Give the backbone structure.
Amino acid sequence: MINVTALLKRLALGRAMRSEELQETLLPKRLALPIFASDPLSSVAYATQEILLVLTLGGLAYLHFTPWIAAAVVALMAVVVLSYRQVVHAYPSGGGSYEVVSTNLGPSAGLVVAASLLVDYVMTVAVSVASGVDNIISAVPALADHRVLMAVCFVALLTGVNLRGMRESGRAFAAPTYLFITGVLIMVATGLLRYLLGHAPVSESASFGVTAKPADAGLAGFALIMLCLRAFSSGCTALTGVEAISNGVPAFRKPKSKNAASTMGIMGTIAVVMFVGVTTLALITKVHITADSCRLTGVPGDCGSYTQRTVIAQLAAAVFGGEHSFGFYFVQAATALVLILAANTAFNGFPLLASILAQHRYLPRQLHSRGDRLAFSNGILALALTAGLLLWFFKADVTSLIHLYILGVFTSFTLSQTGMVRHWNGELRDPATDAERRRHGRVARVINALGAVVTGLVLVIVLATKFTQGAWLAVVAAMVLCLMMRGIRRHYDSVAAELAVDDPRTELARPSRVLGIVLISTLHKPTLRALAYARAFRPDELEALTVAVDREETAHLREQWAALDIDIPLKVVDSPYREITRPVVEYIRSVRRSSPRDVVGVFIPEYVVGHWWEHLLHNQSALWLKSRLLFTPGVMVTSVPWQLTSSAKADHPAGRAPGAVRRGEPRPRARS
């Protein structure tokens, strides 16, 4: 018979892969770029918009600060990329910021980075998908009422693709990423060419005015500085996901560090060129955008029902000749697709980091296991569930989610660069370090020190400008996660200490006696098999135990027992309240109390059934008994199975148990 569940799983995920096939999943640079860099590349689509949204709080008067803020973001991007290239070469094992900080600044600081990054990866999925949905709605406004449903469905789709494995997800996401890069570069080049030829494109919002918020009108001095810093911190969303390559070095083809560093350099160059181009084009076309459409003046119709297009949408319409042009739809489709697929950076970074943390016993060990397609399936599912709940709670609103963003990534930036400075200090103090390595170390230390100072300042700015707007939630989430990981580590450590062997001779010493107890309710074939199996263990004493719930049934059982002349004593425990579990457990515990040095072996006959509904009809008493007896010291519980006819129909030799591939088990042959 065909196992429908296994068939559907194979159709969705593909064939299971052996552990030896892991090398086949390693990535060339052309696939690694869309997998690990789709987030920083796609953030070009909304980084400029976030700067403009903040600056227009004071009206149009402050838009002339845009080039300076963009230049600061570009400089920061260059510093961070150069700094992380050092991390890739120094720590190629894939721990990234977590490994750097844990090694050089201690495990406590490492946990802070890990918690911050895990929170940021969740936010990456939420913000990327929500922003992608926004761009779809910009092209098709009628879909606005289905925002949350679309976002959750896209998360589910990304989850399914990533469960098929890293290489397969790279192939699926490569084309949209490269189409987005091509579309944006063509749009920027066309727009700049028209500007140089004297026919500058004009955005649909160029004629709109912007009413300043009363609190932000006529700013000067410290208030103006804070507005610019807030705009800068919003523009720093362009840097999210930069560290993902340093976490994914093991996924690259050899030479791993060199290929990862090259990919990071390519990513940084492309991101800077696109960000500068989009920002320049936004200024040329005079894009005016606000968080509240009713602050726009001159809009057609009711401002409350007016839907503002994203900056990218307005630029594409202005450059390519309107909202019905091919270029507009191409850029919008590519932007929406790459923004949604940008979450793939997190779908690779989160499971990898969670796997390392699980290996270090800070997270459940299940997160370190690879699935049938050699992906960290449990980590992928955990990320998808958390991000989906976040999108549902915040109604997939980018403005609400963006305030929770980028805080974690700048925490990891700052601490990792500080850790790298300490790393180079250690190498330079080592007398065994050669002259060439010393020269490289001095240059690298300057780069990392600059990165630590700059990203530290940005972290302070982000905290100061976004904390009261919702960033405090990200801080609280990171703190709770950090405390949880400490608790998990303490649990694993205490269990390991408790299970450690002190004296092998004591642990291997045989018990003074073994008492076997077979639990029976009716005298039938499963009961006789359990009795025979228990007898094969040759315990010092063996008895059968039944509970007298019904007097007539108990009397009938005694008669059958005597008629068959079974040479095993039958012990009957009275149960005036018609319970089964409590009398059995109390009797076995009383046996243990009377002979603490003895071991009690309890044998329970159980039915093996083939249908889910049959489980509801059988084995319920056995299940409760086992769950209680497992907590009793000195008691060993053994199930003696009896296969019913239905169990043979449920035996599908073509299907393998979960984890069979990882254990190297051969594929069973199908029945003839």
Notes: Confidence is low (pLDDT under 50) at residues 652-672. The longest strand covers residues 599-608. Residues 107-139 form the longest helix (33 residues).
